[in-house]
Amino acid sequence: MKIGILTFHCAHNYGAVLQAYALVTYLRKNNYDAEIIDYRPRSLTMSHGIMPWRRISRLNIIRKVIFVLRILPFLTERKERSDKFQSFIDSLPLSTRKYTETDSEVIGYDIIICGSDQVWNPRITNGFDKFFCGSVSHKGKFISYAASTEAKRIISDDYKKYKEVLSNFENISVRESELKNILQPLINKEITKVVDPVFLLSANEWQKIAVKPTFIDKPYLLVYQVKRDDRVLDMANKYAILHHMSVVEVTAEAEYKKMKNRILTASPFEFVGLFANASCVVTTSFHGTAFSIIFNKPFKTVLFNSPGDGRALDVMNTFGIENSTVDVDSGDIQEMSHNTPNIDILVRTSETFIKQAIQ
Fold it and tell me: Facing residues of 283 across strands?
């Protein structure tokens, strides 16, 4: 039985490539013949690399000029970061055939798994993508695993399209409870809530690919922001001073002011190593939250009272560690302590879903 995975494997985003790695690694270690289908839509490829052309194309002429001038000083860093991501992506078990939006059929698989990540978010994929939504021709069956979107942005006008998407899948699972609650009434088929693929691998398994940082030899607080706000770094610095730690920041993009211990060009391997070796973590990211949990780090996830908070909040609610959040307007981080959530039960539920869906 041949299994293909359709996901955001080619995005230059830490969470995207690491969840792709996790799912295909999990399937292979359980003796499934699995690979990632090398589908590279323009919605992803034009958003990353040395120049983010998709983002630039959305700006008016004045904003285009301002944006390009802002990132020009960082082209060296952007290229280094892009090369590291591409090296990681090329190391994944990819299909021999490459696919683009112009293709209408995927061949050679008994089962195609769509997910994880926000594969059902039309704002990311420039509309509902026919590959991620199971609308391309395929002789086997489609399964969704931990599919996600910004649930709070779904409006009633979207229901018809989501109902159509769900009808393409024989087995359906999503990553967030809120998304499940919205989608379940649209189809007469059970939707299962499962964990993000990164939780399918143990901390020891992640340690095997982690690259330990060598530039710092004392305890450090790691900051990782996708939605970036200087107030978050200020809060982290205050906490670190009180607890006699350094602050190390790994950035989601390369075009930030160069500072000591600010890492603009970490590879995915180095990203995992930074979490594995941190004393504690402050993050605004879903996958920053996830890796803090996996490595059992004291952490705080900073909230902005926006729709983007929902994914990180869901994983903390799921594991019963809601006290690991702090509001960005609070100005201070109180004591961080170790959380030891029991993730095994939901991981087993997720593994059961995979095994039953693949049968």
Answer: 224, 301
